[in-house]
Structures are given as C-alpha cells and as structure tokens.
Amino acid sequence: MHIPDGFIPFPQYLVYWLIALVALYFSMQWAGRDLKERQIPLFAVLAAGIFAIQAMNIPIPWGTSGHMVGAALVAIIFASPYAAVLLLSIVLILQGLIFGDGGITALGANIFNMGVIGGFTGYYLFRALRSAGEIPAVIVASWASIFLAAIACAVEMWIAGTFPLVQGLWMMGLYHAVIGLIEAAITVVVVLAIQSSRPDLFSLRDWGKKGAEVLSK
C-alpha cells in the first residue's frame, strides 16, 4: 500500500501533503493534551509492532503491495483517530527515510491513506458499532479501515494515470479484503491482551473516558 515516488504527479502530491500536515497538526495537539506519560511506552510498543507487521508485504501488480496497517488498533486503544495519524506518520517517515519503503514525495499520500483514512475509519466505525458488541465492532472497524485505505490508494494512483481502475480496484480490494481478516483477528487479540495485562491503560468498558474519570472509579 506504500506508494513509491514517481507514481503520483507533483500537483496531486501537494493535495495529500496538505491534508496530512493538517491532520498532523491536530494529532500533535492531541498528543500534547491527551497522551499521558504512562501511555508513552504502550505507544512506542505499538509503533514497533506496526513497523514490523507492515514489513510483511505481498506484491500486488502495477507496483504496489498489500500488508496490514494497524491504524484501527491504535485509534481504538487510544480512543482517538489522531493517535493513529501520529503513530502511523512516525512509522511511515522512518520506513521512507531509512528503508525506502514508500516514497518521500508520496509520504503525504501514504499518511493520508494509512493514517487518516485508516485511523478515522477505525475510530468512528468502532464508536458507532460498539453498542452492538465491542468485539464485533473491533472486527468490523479494523477490517474496514484497511480495506478503505487500500481502495483510496488504488483510486489515487488511477487518478495519477499509473494504475488501471477496474483491475486495480479488484486487486487492491481482493488482497486487502483477505489481509483485513488477518488484521481484524490480530487487532482483537492485541486489544484483549492489553486490556487483560494493563487495564489501567485500556479497557473496553471504560473506552472513550478520560483517564481521570477511570481512575476516580
């Protein structure tokens, strides 16, 4: 899903960079306001884990790849889509600069797809569906977040003229529909594991409440 340099023309890059920078601005505000010191180790561990799972790429025709993303996991654990934008941006910047995974000029597009679309889809779908069951909501939110990010990636490259529309949507959609099932399963396992081991940092029951509200119970 990482778009390399040269796949999108310069004016199109600027649009995604602008969206990514605005999202990063609000993400930094979220971090300054809501990311507590005791949560930082968990944030770092999730960043390392997502860095690792994104390294497991499956080649997709026409120069892109399929892999897990992890944005919904971060948005759910920290109860904010901006947490996903911030964490995915850090991961994508390191991957682009050090490992050449994703282009530098395409960084805005990659942050937009995986951080913004992935994070916001994961967060708002989980929030909308959790009343019907928290685990099913995690599954749907995590699957949809990666699927829609992949579809957006395909559409962007089609607009750029470097990806066929119908075949591209089929390939990106099919690959990520399957990968999304794996991501959903892993997201459920990680969510339950963190809740079990560190209920002081994350609990589905207290999801969305401020730390002070939880600690005061």
From TrEMBL:
A Pfam family the protein falls into: CbiM
Listed transmembrane segments: 7-28, 40-60, 72-98, 104-126, 138-161, 173-194
InterPro entries membership: CbiM/NikMN
Organism superkingdom: Archaea
Localization in the cell: Cell membrane
Protein's membrane topology: Multi-pass membrane protein
Keywords from the named record: Cell membrane, Membrane, Transmembrane, Transmembrane helix, Transport
GO cellular component: plasma membrane
Cell membrane as UniProt keyword: yes
GO annotation, biological process: transition metal ion transport
Chief location bin: membrane
Protein name: Cobalamin biosynthesis protein M
